[in-house]
């Protein structure tokens, strides 16, 4: 695919090349066209996560790209020291409407992941959460937003649950239930950031296999999984990951989530103070389109 695309770019001699995300694909593609003497502008949208691991990529990208549009404001320093221009366009959570003043109902959101292996690996903890709810708050409604390819397996997992459980793939219903949810149990990832924007108190969990965890501990520089915690360099959003995700610890953290309203309020207030590192006062699309237009003038 890289060879095919590079031939297309060279033969058509485009005025501008824009690559999006996928740094391990885009870097060798741009390296190839630069070797083929393509000397026009190249923009990368979404920076490689050099702040987490493989920081040397920042210098490599600076040699090939003209600019990177970054989602997080703190990313600028990693690239600017090598002379690579950045534009902070912000994260797409900008488009999530913040309607936290709507009265919350007795709902909790369960987000077990968007990949089958995540759901299989983590659902035992969602089962434990259900069992705790059965003791502490049996009248609560569990809401599980998911994707079509996961709906059936999740339905099987919750088939014998005695608490009312809503599983849906309908985006309109998902937004409706988010608005009235008091808490969220979330698989680490973009979903956690979306929950933060919606100002729903949450507990984040994730688990890698043991060997992968050992390898990543050697190479990964960040202490946290949640981006809010990474930016703050402290635990703002409670998270349990990998070997720290044990049944005992999970029950303690989960019970705290559904009973300690003061801690939940502090979590939301603290998140607010870091959202300006993640989004701007303009839509990412508007900022990106304006910058691209400047290149094409």
UniProtKB/TrEMBL annotation:
UniProt-recorded Gene Ontology molecular function terms: lipid-A-disaccharide synthase activity; phospholipid binding
Keywords, ordered alphabetically: Glycosyltransferase, Lipid A biosynthesis, Lipid biosynthesis, Lipid metabolism, Transferase
Known EC number: 2.4.1.182
Catalytic activity field: a lipid X + a UDP-2-N,3-O-bis[(3R)-3-hydroxyacyl]-alpha-D-glucosamine = a lipid A disaccharide + UDP + H(+)
Biological process annotations from GO: lipid A biosynthetic process
GO CC annotations on file: membrane
Full protein name: lipid-A-disaccharide synthase
